[in-house]
Amino acid sequence: MKRLLDLVGGVGGLILISPVFVVVAGLVWIGDRGPVFYRQVRVGRFGREFKIWKFRTMRVGADQMGPAVTKGGDNRITLVGRLLRKTKIDEIPQLLNVVAGEMSFVGPRPEVPRYVGLYSEAQRRVLDLKPGITDLASLRFRNEEELLARAEEFERFYREVCIPRKIELNLEYAAKASVWNDTKLIVKTVLAVAGLGGVGGADPRGSGRNVQLDGSSGRRRDARGNAADKGSSRI
Length: 235
Description:
Elements: H1 2-16, H2 18-32, E1 37-43, E2 49-55, H3 79-87, H4 95-99, E3 104-106, H5 113-116, E4 132-134, H6 136-140, H7 144-149, H8 154-174, H9 179-193, E5 211-213, E6 220-222
Parallel strand pairs: 3-4
Antiparallel strand pairs: 1-2, 5-6
């Protein structure tokens, strides 16, 4: 049933937003005369790798110039790319992945192989789920780039705090997933992108202050040096 809805929604969505495709493609190309799309290897269900579709938002070759994750102010992001990322329009081409059966509308956001390789055995349970365009973690972490900009070691913070929390959220949601809950999540995502949603956008451990990691234990510490509770469910 879910696959049928994904297929119908994906094909219908591509037809409806085809004019947007043309306009955005033109803007991306005019920006620096580079490729319109960016294809990156991600890890899908059961650990199978596939290439995700995105409108290119970074300079050509940016993935060879730094970490696989970006933070606010990253100078690899183009001017047009900043707008596309803010509005999540860069994710629209993933409807192609949905139609191909590699992704669903709702499911865990697929990670790059280098981070999946660090998953614990328990965390690898998330690979039993088909990845999606949106999920609960996407809502809760929708201001992730700004969050990472406050971390002193932002890639390590992403690996040791953000990824584990996202996996927790995805496994929790999977236990109660249904067509109705998926529909509500899609609506919440649209509202959040439009600036009308009330979910998420917060520091995954509940603090808006600058964050750093305790080098000996991996625990997060805030700007005052106080250890944060890594077990907190507030994000």
